[in-house]
Amino acid sequence: MADETLFLLLHSEMVAGLYRAAEQGEGENGRCTTKLESMGFRVGQGLIERFTKDTARFKDELDIMKFICKDFWTTVFKKQIDNLRTNHQGIYVLQDNKFRLLTQMSAGKQYLEHAPKFLAFTCGLIRGGLSNLGIKSIVTAEVSSMPACKFQVMIQKM
Amino acid sequence: MSRPPGRKQDSQKISRELFVLTYGALVAQLCKDYEKDEDVNTCLDRMGYAIGIRLIDDFLARSSVKRCRSYSETADMIAQVAFKMYLGVTPSVSCSSAAGNEFSLILDKNPLVDFVEELPAERASLCYCNLLCGVIRGALEMVHLAAEVTFLQDRLKGDAVTEIGITFLRKAEDRKHRRNK
Q1: Chain B residues near residue A14 by CB distance under 8 angstroms
Q2: What is the mean pLDDT of residues A21-46?
Q3: Gene Ontology terms, cellular component aspect (chain A) (predicted)?
């Protein structure tokens, strides 16, 4: 779909633009990740509101996570999460074997070190979504081989 | 727990909202990063340009349109095919110069500002949708059409409509070597 292209291009340009600006200025890469994450957070909050407008109330935490993996992921990234694992104590691992925002890069090891830049926004997206559903969390991501990645969600008990 | 039907159109709408919200977050972030509105505008334009030079490939692949034979045809193409495809709106086109190289795209509805009420007072000269200018400029450049694209009117600034001005920089005669568009 055409909208999707726009989003993909905007996202990669956002990442590139922020890092370019940081290189010219202070050069703190950590701040860029934070910025991307907080942008994702805002977007996640907004999206989940529109999204859950007409849906039934969620049963529990797991139900919410399933919703994120299926409906939310399908709308945003055009596919479901491939694998959801949990230790039933507040840690969830979402595995995507072909993550949409990484598929445009070479699948080899060459750009592996740059991959985290392209995950920060999505981490925020998940965190923002969950936060508006009343779950406080910490989301981190890791990539071991290129188009696949894992998001780890740690629920903060309030 | 069955989810209500009608998800399909919903998901298409949300997909566009994702783009609009992301763009909003980007502008908000840039406003935090840069004090001067001009810097934000430049930054948006540059990002748009980088998007445009790639978007044109996607556009040509998707639309399989024929070559345009005149500037007015190109302007119509941008309005009726490109805007329709990517933003779901069709601006009206008017030619504003006798030389036939200046066009205006007039948008009654601008999806990019769906969630924007007004600009804050201290950001009076911010061009919220400046990304669009960059995108159009970048895309045109990739089909060998140098152009200047600016916002002439903006609803967010209190004008009645949103108007994007496109000025093609080369004269109509020396377009012989133009590539496909």
Answers
A1: 22, 26, 47
A2: 82
A3: cis-Golgi network; endoplasmic reticulum; trans-Golgi network; TRAPP complex
Condensed to tens digits (0 to 9), the pLDDT of residues A35-61 reads 899 999 999 999 898 888 878 888 888
ipTM of the complex model: 0.88
Domain housing B88: 36-168
Q: How far apart are CA B156 and CA B154, in angstroms?
A: 5
Residue of chain A whose alpha carbon sits nearest to that of B19: A7
The answer, for A16 touching chain B at a CB cutoff of 8 Å, is yes
CATH number for the domain that contains residue B91: 3.30.1380.20
Q: What is the CATH number of domain A4-155?
A: 3.30.1380.20
* Residues in Cβ contact with A3 at an 8 Å cutoff, skipping those fewer than 6 apart: B12, B15, B16, B18, B19, B86
Give the pLDDT score at B1: 45
pTM score over 0.90: no
- Whole-number Å distance between alpha carbons of B171 and B100: 9
Residue ranges of the domains in chain A? 4-155
